[in-house]
Amino acid sequence: MSNILGVDLGGTKILAGVVDTDSGKVVSHEKKRTHARHTPEDIVNRLIEASQKAIQEAGVNPRSIERVGIGVAGQIDRTNGIVVNGPNLAGMHNMPLAQKVSKALGKPVSLYNDVEAAAAGEATFGAARGHPNFVTVFVGTGIGGAIYRDGKPYTGATKTAGEIGHTIIDVNGRICSCGGVGHLEAYASRTAIVRYILAKMKGGRKSVLSDVAGEIDPDDPGGSGIRSSALKRALEKDDPLVVEALNVGGDFLAAGLTSVVNFYNPPLIILGGGLVDAIDSFFEHVAQRTRQSALVVPAQSLRIEKAALSDYSGIIGAAVLASRTG
Asked: Could you name the CATH architecture of 131-307?
């Protein structure tokens, strides 16, 4: 058994777990929420707390935890273990995360992009197992992507490849959390879909989500109150506004994926993240619209699959990548 601590640092949650990287089994896990009111330092402290709790709950000798792998929702400097820019992480900027976590836990720490980590999890133990070439797209607070070529992550010239959430779909469009204009993330992420719902409700539209709308921080709609589970419950009640918002967001996501299909011609796309995992109809809508919109030839050979490891893709993948570093 090879025990590695994997951590998934996302825009609304921190998930830490001890992973047996020989089998892919999650031995223990601990989750903490993150909010816009948190500072970057708060997030680091919560990550350390979650990591310590996961190690305690694993029921193994802490010394048997060989390394730590952290998947971060943002752009990172892998060599120096720095979060260069995390717009959905309280604006985290040039944070020496690996050094801080290593000092607290007494373990070597490696950083990865969060969807890069999730892709590694799916490639090793999930929906992409046995498939050397694929693209992974995860939809949550933001939208992230990763590319696998010949069985290995393709990270590009500056090791930032896969940022599909920051491809431009409207040159005069909405402001993205990163400060860019018209990015896909500003239209198809869970945060964007929640913003759409709140704007319509403010204009007089009714929704079963009205009872939680007062809890929403206008500056952090994706981080409080209306999560994927709430959208799912509203959808089960046939809430017209939620159906509309998910279809609109799904159409934008399909447009982004269609560009990937037409340009890159991948044989397989793995879709994951909280929104995809919670709502089957959203996944099915996006997959169908992508196939319909893509060029005929690449669409014929395209498979679109749902991530198989659910919430654990990121921590399993971060642990797998860290195990290969040691």
From this structure: 2-Layer Sandwich (3.30)
Question: What value does the mean pLDDT of the chain take?
Answer: 93
Same fold, 3-122+311-325 and 131-307: yes
Question: Given pLDDT bands bounded at 50, 70 and 90, which one contains residue 35?
Answer: confident
Q: What contacts 24+ positions apart, CB below 8 Å, involve 50-56? A: 50/7, 50/14, 50/15, 50/16, 51/5, 51/7, 51/16, 51/101, 51/104, 51/105, 52/104, 52/105, 53/16, 54/5, 54/16, 54/17, 54/18, 54/28, 54/29, 54/30, 55/5, 55/18, 55/28, 55/105
Does the domain at 3-122+311-325 match CATH 1.10.260.40? Answer given as no
Q: Give the C-alpha separation, 197 to 245, whole Å.
A: 6
The three-state secondary structure class of 273 is: coil
